[in-house]
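Minutes, project huddle
Topic: does the predicted pose make sense with G3I bound?
PN asked that the exact inputs be recorded in the minutes so nobody has to dig through chat later. Recorded below.
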Amino acid sequence: MGAVIIGKKELKRQQILALDDPHCECIKYPGDKSLKERAAKKKILFGTAIRHPLLSTDKEYARSLIEECSILVSEWGFKWHVYPKPLRPTPQSFDFAAADVMYNFARSHGMKVRGHTLVWYMSLPPWFEKTVNRQNAKDILEKHINTVVGRYRGKMHSWDVVNEAIEPRDGHPNGLRKTPWLEFIGEDYIDLAFRLAHKADPEAMLVYNDYGLVYDRPQDEAKRHAVIKLLKRLKSQGTPIHALGLQAHLDGSETRFNHQILKDFLAQVANLGLKIMVTELDVTDKDLPLDIKVRDRIVAKAYSNYLKVVLEEPAVIAILTWGLNDKHSWLNEFQPRKDGASVRPLPLDAGGKRKFAWNAMARAFDTAPSR
Ligand code: G3I
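Predicted holo structure (tokens), as shared on screen:
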């Protein structure tokens, strides 16, 4: 097959196949039924991360969330410190204004709520570095989890208790990421966080959440190995952990996708008695050609390839994207295109219109085995 150059970018073979497939499930619109309805028919939850300030300023945004989603997570509101109203303004205080906006919106529309995230090395408040140390870290962690989880006791679907604790390149013997929590408390901070969360809300599903677990690449393989090792260790010591969260930030230009490797990894997790959620699904198009039709086809194919494998695993109970429409994707700020064109990583375009990616997700739910 000869080289295909589109907009000065040479497409790789798999990408050309995506474009040449006349039966690509992403082209033909599968009808109006929403993603949450299609997912619910297979006993799967579909939802997304939301930016709570938009709920009052963008009516079309709010409408699309209500139409498409049965579960929501806040992109910012439940973190220790993110724009515009941090949860933890001071070591002694909490501000639940942002968290409550999302929580109340979701509950008023019959949606479930995920909490993200209790323990992370990022988005820590400015006071953290000069306040937290080996002597007080455990108490500060306990106070945070007791207060935040306790406030929503019995009302949350699940919590991302610990986020992104694995980074093999940091050189820890168990592949743990070098974070302030590891430094101040030791590797038992993970078990401690889950035990505190379970005590604060025995009904909530408790999740370990991480990224970089998708592709047939050395760094992904190392991370999958370290994550399985962590999950086995936690389960063996009786840690109250119930699920693995796969962030699934996919790359439309990455062709090293091996469905058997992913399938085997998911089976290993399920065999530990854990449920699985896809928690932050999106497909970056930053390295794809400028042509929107080409980009949208390749992005849709990436959704289709990934979801086909994931939804075959019965332990997978929920699929959440990280944003619902292109206008409000984190990738606009964090992974912009070099040509300055707007990114198109999500099921709806910037105007809220369903795209090929939406078609691919709809087809994936329609053809998924029921739970
Ligand atoms: O927009 C405000 C700006 O007005 C203000 O001056 C500035 C002051 O800090 O903050 C800006 O808000 C930024 C916000 O994104 C909106 O762009 C925050 O600084 C920035 O921290 C925030 O980044 C978020 C990031 O997590 C860190 O919390 C991203 O939106 C969010 O998408 C990203 O989400 C993470 C998940 O939590 C974990 N998995 C990876 C995922 C993507 O990085």
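Observations noted during the meeting:
- The mean pLDDT is 95.
- The longest helix spans residues 292-312.
No decisions taken; revisit at the next huddle.
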